Structure formats: C-alpha cells, structure tokens
Amino acid sequence: MTCREMLEGYFLAGVAAASPAERLPGLLPKGRPAGQTLVLGCGKAAAAMAAVARRGLEGPVSGCVVTRHGHGGGQDTGAITVIEAGHPVPDAASLRAGQQIRALAASAGPADRVIFLISGGGSALLCDQLPGLTLETKAAITRHLVLSGLPIDQINLVRRHLSLVKGGRLAAAAAAAGEMHSFLISDVVGDDPAAIASGPTIACRFEPEAALAILNQAGWPVSPELTSAIRNAPALAAPRHPVHIAARGADALDRIAILARADGWNVVRLGDELTGDAAQTGQAHAELALRHAAQGGRHLLLSGGELTVTVRAEGGCGGPNLEYLAALMERLPPGAPIAALAGDSDGIDGTEANAGGYCDATTRATPQACAAALAANRTHELFAQIGGLITTGPTGTNVNDIRMIAIGAIA
Q1: How remote is the C-alpha of 313 from its chain's centroid?
Q2: SS3 321
Q3: Are residues 225 and 319 both part of a single domain?
Q4: Is 160 in the same domain as 92?
C-alpha cells in the first residue's frame, strides 16, 4: 500500500464515521404519530439524511429537502422530495425550496410529527428572503460576503437577518405540530446548533444593528430599503423541541485516530476545531511536521475545523484545503519524509469537483511554484499539474475539513 492509498483510506473512513447512515438511525424517534410525519431539511447531507429517515421512521412519511446541485442523486427518499439548488450563492431553486418547505411546515397540525434534517450548506440552499428584498439582491449580498474574507459566523448572522426561514423561523412556521425534532450534522466550529445552516429550527437572538454593521464593514452599500427590511423583520420564536447533533468533525477524526494507531502511527491531534487562514495554517503545520521529523519515528498529525481562503486575485481556482497544502509544501525541504492529505468531508473543496489534495516527497511542487499559485489563488491548477487532486464525489455528509500529515516511513 502506498502512502497515498493509506491516507485516502483514512479519509474515507473518517467520512463514513460521520455519515447519516452510521450516525442517524439510532437517534430517530420510535413509534408513529396519530397523523403524518413530515421530513423537512436542507444542506449538503440533506438527501442522504432523508433516505435514512425514510427507512427508519414508522408510518406515512413525506416532505421535502433541499441539497446542493449534484448531491441528491442515488438516494431513495420515497415520498420525500429532493430539490437541488445553488451553493454558496442561492438561486431560483433555493427560493422555490425555501417557500415549499416553509409551506409544508406551516401545514403541520397537532396530530403530526415534523422531522427537521439540517446540515452545512443550508444557509444558501434554503432561501426565502424578507419582504422588500429580491432574490437577486440577496444573492449579490451573499456573493459579496463570501468573497470578503469575513468569518462564516458573521456571514451567517447577516443571512439570518435577511430570511424568513433562518434563525428558528422555519420551526416557528411549524408551531402547530404536535411533535418536532431537529437532527443536525455539524460543519461549524464549536457545533453550535444555531450556527449550522444559520439555525432554521433553533431559537436565536436577532441583532439587526450587528447585521447592518457587518454589511458596512464588508463594504456593501446599505440602502434605506435594506436597513428598513432588516430592522422591521418579524420576530418569530422557534418552539422548544429536542435537538440532536448527529455527527460532527470530531467523529471523523476519532475514527481516523483509531485506525492510524492500529497501524503503528503516533497520532498527534492538533485540534478538531481549527479556524483561520488556510495558507498561514499550512505554514505553521509545516514547521510542526519538520520538528516531528527531527525526532524520528512515525507520526500522524491530525486536524479538523474550517479554514478560510484569503482572495488575493480574481479568477482563482482552489479551496482552503489546497491552499493549506500548497503553503505546507512551500515550507518543506526537498526529500523530507513527509506526506499530507487535506480534504473537505463533503467531497467539494471550494467550487471544483475535487475533495482536496495530496502531496509527498516525490510529487511536491517547487517552493516557487507554490508561492506563485498561492499569490494567484490558483492552487487547483498546481495540484492538477502534480497529480495531487483527490476526487471522491459528493459524500452525503458535511463535517468540515480533514487534514493529515504523515511523517516517517509507512511501515
């Protein structure tokens, strides 16, 4: 087995450990309600979660979920409709999904059970903007914020204040239901339910002035109409109900650590919840890797969380995992016995079809090539040239990034 095969195997095992098929069945409620069961959801894992719910829930089950384009195929969801929509910027399908799902929530009565299935990516995929705002305006704001380099929690705070379904408002629409449950797959650092997909079923504080301040900070021209829409949005309270975190990034890293230790690696956990600039983190991890290499032995540095890309040039291509790996490669001397894999657990790193990338002592680009790719945000092209792209296709889950640095001989 090559080092690449080994690390890819660990990556896929980590993804499987955080999958709906493994994490959701034991959490679903037992028995059947007097009325119907409505399954409503959003996110990159929504279709896979809906398939598990269809199999595991008793009685008539119907509903609607929305997932990213390309992430809904191959799932048997029965009478649960799957809509595919735009990400990270909402499109017309996002609006259709938001309106349809909110209408279904409002149709639930005292005899009915509502099951909410929420995962990362839902902030863009589930869209029903405030009165007075157009989809085009909301999409433009989202695109501007995504490219601004702001932390995702600030972007999602603004999204909540532009929406009729985020910040608990979707659950509020289903307030007449006799029973409701939320099941979440976390792609946020800290696993705060209110932050996952901007918390469509979780009660949260609305802070209109904070949202307006973030928009101003990001350089978006805040019109009087936008100010009025945000300040005058209806305050709807989400009903209290059971909320379950079905899977999180730590579940994936825990599985990898078990497998790696069984293979004789000294596993060093660098943190399950790392944030910050991807390139800067890659540089720091290169220094850590070199220190462990100097000690001798076999070490696997393992980390997760959500890193971000600083956009330095227009027309770039490559997500945070490739930025991280390019910066790491740039700092490693030729021949250093170090290999690394970094990938997004949802199978998409940034906007391209790859989950992430891989490099080792025989496939590394030169420091000059790495620096040029980082400066132009063209890391996807760099890894295509060295044969380092990792492609899995959509995985059906989303617990953020998985990063591994293997130091020393494989066996």
Answers
A1: 24
A2: helix
A3: no
A4: yes
In 10 A of CB 263, how many CB atoms?
16
> Considering its fold, how many domains does the chain have in total?
2
Domain with residue 135: its CATH number is 3.40.50.10180
Looking at 216, 247, 278, the residue that finishes a domain is 247
| Bridge partners of residue 117, in order along the sequence | 41, 183
Tell me which residue range forms the domain holding 299.
Answer: 3-11+249-407
Cα distance between residue 312 and residue 14, in whole Å: 32
Q: Is the torsion defined by CA of 245, 248, 254, 256 positive or negative?
A: positive
Q: What is the CB neighbour count within 10 angstroms for residue 64?
A: 24
Instruction: Look at 26-40, 82-96, 140-154, 245-259 and tell me which has the smallest mean pLDDT.
Output: 140-154
pLDDT in tens, 285-304: 999 999 999 999 999 999 99
| 374 & 402 share domain | yes
| Contacts with 249 (C-beta within 8 Å, 6 or more apart), sequence order | 18, 186, 187, 272, 273, 304, 305, 345, 399, 400, 401, 402
Residues 328 and 349 in one domain: yes
Residue 351 corresponds to which tokens in the numbers above?
A: 């906007």
Residue 370: predicted pLDDT: 97
60 lies in the same domain as 193 = yes
**Are residues 31 and 94 part of one domain?**
yes
Where is the domain boundary, 247, 263, 281?
247
Question: Which stretches of 18-91 are DSSP H helices?
Answer: 20-23, 46-56
CATH number at residue 322: 3.40.1480.10
In the chain, pLDDT over 70 holds for what percent of residues?
A: 100
- Say whether pLDDT at 411 is over 80: no
The reply to whether 76 and 216 lie within a common domain is: yes
CA of residue 7 relative to chain centroid, distance: 21
Mean pLDDT of 355-375: 96
The total number of residues written for the chain in this structure: 411
> Cα(396)–Cα(18) distance, rounded to whole angstroms?
9
Burial 91-102 (b: 16+ CB within 10 A, else e): bebbbbbbebbb
pLDDT tens digits for 209-233? 999 999 999 999 999 989 998 998 8
Of 308, 309, 310, 323, give the one whose Cα is nearest residue 381.
323
> Which one-letter amino acid corresponds to residue 295?
Q
Mean pLDDT throughout 60-74? Answer: 94
Looking at the fold, whether 286 and 331 belong to one and the same domain comes out as yes
